[in-house]
Amino acid sequence: MLIAGLLALSDPPHDARVELGSANLGFGWLRVDEQSGTIAELGRGPAPASPDLEGTHGAPLLISPAFVDTHLHLPQFDSVGADGLGLLSWLREAVFPAEARWADPDFAGQMTTRVARKLLAHGTTAVAAYATVHHEGTRNAIRALSDAGLRGHVGQVLMDQEAPAELVRPAAQLVREASTLRPVGRIEPAVTPRFAVSCSRELLAGAGELAQASRALVQTHLSETREECRRVRTLHGAVTYTEVYRRAGLLGSRTLLGHGIWLNQKERAMLAEMGSTIAHCPTANLFLESGSMNLGENRRAGVRTCLGSDIAGGSDVSMPRVARAMIETAKSRRLLASAAFRARVTVPSAAQAWWQITTGNACTLALPGNGELQAGAIADLVIIDPARGPEGDREWSHRDDPIGAVLYGWDPRWITHTFAAGKPVYSA
Asked: Residue 58: CA atoms inside 13 Å, Cβ hemisphere, count?
């Protein structure tokens, strides 16, 4: 298949640990090899033949690497919009009842199939996702995502305290079950202690040992709310939240920490030293009124960051909207900063935000071949037609900042096709 349009090409960051890259547009074409699942050819300028996909009313298509979501919860997709609660109350009243339904492995698989369709319709082909404590439900979720063509990491949630009885398990059982999960297709298992509130020291240590032995991705939550941080100190002693994870052997270059809002400089230095990454979830932070992550301070400290929807804490599955929320969060921090500190607040550009939800997030999840438009790369693609529909923008490519026009005017109905490993998995 030959596709022509404006290509969202990635510029690498100066330092992948700290700096954001950017995206730039250039007219060109690419040929998808469905058999190998890769981009067979990519060229600049006019296509060598008529493309199979064309834009609306002469306006070009936007051809982009597909989106990558580095933090979401599969069983929570039906819980979006449960408002008016802080994190710990929200878990008890809205989330834990939803997760209890995964005791039925068939329900878990069926729900994940439905979630996968939604992700692909929004252009997301790769994820780092949480399942539940249910082992068979997690296995079915991994199979369902694989069958749908997605790539990434899924973890059985490890939780042995501070949760309803039907959702806790003995620490040794959880670690043993998690150790038996195996990759299926493009989905790999992740070591997933929920967070330090719901994990005993024994369970955290067991998770750390499993992570060291398996070299799997570690995903958990860190310092999302002040109430949560206070609870961690009560449960684990007078050490920082980050130190709890370090002592358990859970920090490293394969560690992905959701939120990371309430950190001090010593904790940031520790995360930078260990090479761990914070999954910034701006829509969830606003919805639960948890706070706003300080992107600039994290970058200055050398802490890597990525972006996640955090469904259902976040209400938007659409990664361009999450990217826009990252920019808006940074602008809000700049507005509220004193004059002396305003210049220190980092506000990403639209191009940098687009890079983050494609190339940057793919790098964070260590997905080689994903997130870039180049010959030989994996053909995980999203085809976007901003001129589509009666209210489409037929002049989008002529704006001063075309990527900004798409990001700020984003409408998921602009997606015409999503490809995963060269195969069409969604078409409007």
From this structure: 2
> Span 67-336: which CATH code?
3.20.20.140
Over 50: is that where the pLDDT of 115 sits?
Answer: yes
| % the chain with pLDDT above 70 | 98
Computed over every residue of the chain, the mean pLDDT equals 95
CATH number of 2-66+369-427: 2.30.40.10
pLDDT tier for residue 407 given thresholds of 50, 70 and 90: very high
Q: Say whether 26 sits in a helix, a strand or coil.
A: strand
313 - beta bridge partners? none
Predicted local confidence at residue 303, as pLDDT: 96
Specify the DSSP element, H or E, that contains 423: strand 423-427
SS3 247: helix
Confidence of residue 14 (pLDDT cuts 50, 70, 90): low
Burial status of residue 350 (CB atoms within 10 A of its CB: 0-12, 13-18, 19 or more):
buried
Please give the Cα distance from 169 to 303 (Å, whole number): 33
Reported in sequence order, the residue ranges of 293-347 that DSSP labels E, i.e. its strands, are 304-307
**Domain ranges across the chain:** 2-66+369-427, 67-336
Going by their DSSP bridges, the two strands 151-155 and 124-130 should be labelled as parallel
Q: Is the torsion defined by CA of 71, 73, 74, 80 positive or negative?
A: negative
Where is average pLDDT lowest: 39-53, 89-103, 171-185?
Answer: 39-53
CA atoms of 155 and 129, how far apart (whole Å)? 7
| Dihedral sign, Cα of residue 263, residue 268, residue 269, residue 274 | positive
